[in-house]
Design a protein that fits this description.
By secondary structure, the chain is of the alpha/beta class. It contains 8 helices and 14 strands. Strands 1, 2, 5, 6, 7, 8, 9, 10, 11 and 12 form a 10-stranded mixed beta sheet that branches. Strands 3-4 form a two-stranded antiparallel sheet. Strands 13-14 form a two-stranded antiparallel sheet. Strand 3 (118-126) and strand 4 form a beta hairpin. It is globular, with a radius of gyration of 35 Å. The model is unreliable at 48-66 and 298-305 (pLDDT under 50).
Length: 305
């Protein structure tokens, strides 16, 4: 015989609908879900807040690093590396050499002057109505700054630094290197009394560093409490010697060349900065306005195999 249908079980499964109870149950479950969601969101927010307080991994290399100590900054900026290649190139004429040196000096000087401090001064700011002015507090550099270019190549770095610190005084020191690679002073226009808080020594190259060591010693004897050296290229040996004699001096440079030759010149360096800056000896090029394909002689440099 056929199996009877389980009506009793069906009765147990079919329950009358109670809207109040159902709504109450749904509201209860919704409240639990909302509370759980809010708790999860709070946990996520807390995690984000904690993560924000932790140091993030450096994805980009800093513009400046200090492998030689806290007072030495070597540029890692890609644009400066590009400009430095133009400055090095033997095909760069004096006019372009001066322009690029100015740009590089501005970049390095901007970083070198970051340790200066400011004080508040009252200023007025024009409002939207040209007849109205708003009182405000501005900032002014606190220290008395002096720029010390080492003649003659240091002159090419003056204009860029004066754009950054327009109220700085300029004092010239002339030095040349003897056949024994020792510096000889031939010019010094430092005032009798030192009223300078910070001095920036400007020289495109630091080779043996004998010259820069001598100038820093002169400034210390004059009474400057804080000295910064600004240079485009330094030799590894010269930089180490400078820090050995004057570990308290701040140094900002664009690049470090590893080697010096027997004459004490940077390798590869950029040649004689003074000659390239001022075009001495005179570079004669009667075909400078002629396209290179139409020139009678090539302007390229044979770099060998």
């Amino acid at each position: 015989p056929p199996t009877p249908f389980p009506f009793a079980l069906l009765k147990q499964r079919i329950q009358p609908h109670n809207p109040t109870k159902s709504s109450s149950s749904m509201t209860h479950h919704s409240s639990i879900d909302l509370a759980t969601s809010m708790e999860e969101k709070k946990t996520d927010d807390d995690a984000v807040a904690v993560a924000a307080l932790e140091p993030s991994p450096a994805k980009v290399e800093p513009t400046f690093t200090a492998p030689y100590g806290p007072h030495v900054h070597v540029s890692k900026h890609p644009v400066l590396a590009h400009k430095l290649s133009i400055l090095r190139s033997s095909s760069t004429p004096p006019s372009s050499f001066r322009s690029v040196l100015r740009e590089i000096t501005f970049h390095l000087g901007y970083e070198a002057t970051s340790t200066l401090t400011t004080r508040g001064i009252p200023i007025t700011v024009p409002a939207t109505n040209p007849n109205d002015h708003i009182d405000a507090i501005g900032q002014k550099i606190k220290e008395k700054v002096a720029l010390i270019p080492i003649l003659r190549s240091g002159l090419g770095m003056i204009d860029a630094m004066l754009e950054l610190v327009d109220n700085a005084t300029v004092h010239h020191i002339g030095m040349y290197r003897s056949k024994t690679l020792m510096p000889v002073q031939y010019y010094n226009r430092l005032p009798r009394v030192c009223d300078v808080d910070v001095a920036y020594v400007l020289d495109p190259l630091i080779a043996t560093s004998n010259t820069i060591i001598s100038v820093v010693g002169i400034l210390k004897k004059w009474g400057v409490p804080e000295i910064h050296v600004l240079s485009v290229i330094a030799s590894k040996k010269g930089l180490s010697e400078l820090l050995r004699h004057h570990p308290d001096v701040h140094v900002t440079i664009g690049h470090i060349d590893e080697n010096l030759n027997a004459e004490g010149n940077l390798m590869p360096g950029l040649g004689d900065a003074g000659d390239r800056l001022f075009g001495t000896p005179m570079i004669a090029d009667e075909e400078e306005l002629v396209h290179h394909s139409k020139r009678k002689r090539t302007m390229s440099v044979d770099i060998g195999p």
